[in-house]
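User:
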Amino acid sequence: MKGGERFFSLVRIGFSGLTRLGRGWPFFLFAVAVLLLYGPTLTYPFVWLDDYVLIQQRMEELRDFRNWFRPFTEHYFRPSSIIGLYYRPLVTLSYMADAWIGEGRIGCFRFTNLMLHILASWGVFLLVREGIERCGRKGVFPGLMGAFVFAVHPVHVMAVAWVPGRNDLLLAVLALASFLGFLWHERTKNAGAMGLHLVALFFALLTKEAAVVIPVLCALWALGVSYKPPDFETTTRLSVADRLGRLPWAGWGGILLLWILLRLTVLGVLGVRGFSDSLGHAFAVIPGLFVRYYGKAVIPTDLRLIPTFSDSSPFWGVVSVFLTFLAILRFGGREFRIALFGLGWLALWLILSLPFGNPGEREELGLLEHRLYVPLAGLVLFGTVALTGRSGETHTVSFRLLKGGAVGFFLLALGFRTWKRLPDLNGPEIFWRAVERESPRCGMAGIGLSEFYLQSGRLEEALDVLERTRTHHPRQENLHLNLGRYYRARRQYPEAERMLQREIALHPYSLRAYVNLAALYREWDRPEDARLWEWRGDQVLRAMERQTFDPFGTKQGTPP
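Assistant: Predicted structure:
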């Protein structure tokens, strides 16, 4: 027996031993890989990017599981913002479970993220295996390698090692469960499979708004790749009407209607209108954002913790699009349709996850890479189909060894890149200094770092960071708020007053500025002014709840 054949026989023996663990043996492999790679993050503290307001400030509330219903009655950022565009109760409920089980210890939050990443990797394995089998190819190895690319890809660092990246992890698990349930029902007509599809779809919508794309993807699969149902003769060709008629339109419509009613009840018209307004800018910003994100997914070299538009190069995105076009040229028949579906999965999920805003303010959008978590499953499907080859093709042992070695080297390179990025999330000071180093145009870096210094009592370091930020980002949100907090801590009350009023003039919806200004006046022994600004802050809050906005009370009554 030649050396190459001996190697593949040993690989087959190893896989046969693993399969004795049952159908869950890929889960075991993904668990080992993820825990080895991301295990050090279990002891990392929070980084104070959303986790401070979503978890740390609310820890006592989260630990009391009697509050389990509250996430369903308020928007995602309710503790820190009076404007709510996001309705994600399932994510907050998962934080509550972690806080209750782990008694507030961060290790429990991080462990849940790792477990969700393992489950998502397993789901990607099942999706890719389904695609490979529809291409007429057999074998577990291609799907396994594709899912390992997903598991160790460095673009996932922010999704897995940053606790609020949980919304994308949980969304991936639920979206894959919903889609796989749809495929299962397509093959077997099993009622339980349809139940899984619809329940997971509803939970996915309660996790992140982009889940509205799941029915669209199911319809695209039914039209382009659909499995022939067992109640049709093998010679029967399903028409478009037959394929569309078998889709669960009533179930989808009922779930989407229920979700919209919940959003309207909790967020009001303002939340729904604000979300649609942000989508209105989509066509102006999609090309530039999409090509940058796509480059990070295909060629993960230009990776940053909080990338800005100008600090991110479109070069790798253009190269990635060209390589994708070359790969498409080799497809034919069913492989082409499945590969195209993979790209459609990536495009639809990514477009609905992009940070839309006014094109003139795109530098402030923050191109966070956790948004690529769910879209990458489609790219993995595309790449695996491309590398597996067409049905009926045979390759020599030497070619298979070369391809296997290249895939193994690629996986090691991805894992090493991920491992090198992880230490940048080891605490707020390290994190925000890394953001400042990687993305000089990111105004959020100075705000996050100064927030940490102010909370830690390191006032002069906070002032240095804030003055540096003011030079380059004079209108940055929370800049003058933190300057006001600095001067208040130094008991320089006139300067603190000026900074806080400047924050309100620039950002009149900043409730924290009203609260801090009222507290300042109480310390300054100006109780009348304190009551006035407490009242104004309360009017802002009430006005936003009624979908009106008049921060100085000209429509809501008179000051006390």
